[in-house]
Design a protein that fits this description.
With 299 residues, the protein is α/β, with parallel strands linked by helices. 42% of the residues lie in helices and 15% in strands. The longest helix has 15 residues.
């Protein structure tokens, strides 16, 4: 390795400081020494997650902290985006042995066959990896309700209001965390003019309750004809979740669940979006470690 390459690697490793590097590279793998989690199938709600080669280890922290602090046993379905290495697949199966694991090639065949009558949906599914969160989660859902949890979220205590809404059979809204700002690919005024409902601000599809009945393919096919909806690769999936949700009926989770661009975790959980991902290690995981989380889960 050349001196320049060594300097580059060091700068990349310690870009956010020694503390962050320590918790990311040394402490984070210790989650693999904790006990497996065996959630039971649940007709009321099922957790669906999409993971990749770059975020599967974070996902283990996300899921184990949720199950530990929520004391819930919702079923779990893990979707591979097609990049997971064999070691990740093995680890995920070992740590969540009761989960359903959906391989990308299996999903490509099964889901795309169901989209043949919806050409816009089929094109999006073939060209946008994040759309797996929408189409594949919908296709494989085996419960009335779905709990979305991205792999950049940590839980520090029971997310009481979230699980209350999930568990309440009389609660009929989709309900997600509020974003820092609205991140849609369509104009809300156009949506209201064309479809007659308001696309309200701040919808974030990283954490929340989604009713399976809200994810209608005929609606999604209609929405995909909206001007500009495909203009931002990263926001299309979130925009479609928001459109389906507000047409169905939706509200945001309370303020403590809102995405904030700082590292402090003041509520029951924290969503460490890309701009603050490094805080997931230096502040979030370190907080869990100091609280005895690893010991409590069998490390």
């Amino acid at each position: 390795m050349t001196p320049g390459a060594i300097v580059y690697r060091l700068r990349k490793t310690f870009h956010h400081g020694i503390r962050t590097a320590y918790y990311r590279d040394v402490v984070r793998p210790r989650i693999l020494k904790t006990r497996p989690v065996c959630p039971a199938p649940n007709a009321a709600c099922e957790i669906h997650v999409l993971t990749s080669s770059g975020d599967w280890l974070n996902l283990v922290w996300t899921l184990k902290s949720f199950y530990h602090f929520s004391s819930r046993t919702y079923g779990l379905c893990i979707h591979d985006d097609g990049t997971l290495p064999s070691e990740a697949k093995r680890a995920l199966r070992e740590h969540f042995p009761a989960a359903r694991f959906i391989a990308r090639d299996e999903a490509d065949s099964a889901v795309q066959a169901k989209l043949t009558d919806f050409p816009r949906c089929l094109h999006l599914r073939r060209t946008n990896t994040l759309s797996l969160k929408l189409f594949d989660f919908r296709h494989y859902l085996q419960a009335e309700r779905m709990l979305l949890i991205d792999s950049d979220i940590l839980f520090f205590s029971e997310p009481a209001e979230l699980v209350h809404r999930v568990d309440d059979p009389g609660y009929h809204f989709n309900s997600v965390n509020a974003d820092v700002s609205s991140a849609y690919t369509v104009d809300p005024a156009t949506v209201e003019e064309q479809f007659g409902f308001k696309l309200r601000p701040l919808f974030n599809s990283g954490l929340g309750l989604i009713h399976g009945a809200s994810l209608r393919l005929d609606w999604i096919e209609e929405f995909l004809a909206l001007p500009g909806i495909l203009d931002h690769f990263w926001r299309i999936e979130q925009t479609l979740f928001a459109l389906c949700s507000f047409r169905y009926g939706a509200e945001l989770l309370p303020e403590e669940y809102r995405v904030k661009l700082d590292g402090e975790s003041r509520g029951s959980c924290k969503h460490y979006i890309g701009a603050i991902r490094h805080h997931m290690y230096g502040q979030g995981i370190s907080r869990l470690v100091r609280s005895g989380f690893l010991e409590a889960t069998g490390a």
